[in-house]
Amino acid sequence: DGAFAYGVSPYANRVIPINLMKLIAWPSIPVGENPVAITLNHEGTLGYVANHVDGTVTIFDIDPASPERHHVVDAIVVGQAPTDLAITPDGDRLVVVNYGSNDLSVIDTDANSEAFHSVVSNPKTSTGTRTVSITPDGGLLYLGTDAGYLVMSVSGYSVVSNVNTGSATRTVAVTPDGAFLILLTTEGAVRSTASA
Question: DSSP 3-state assignment of 152?
Answer without folding.
Answer: strand
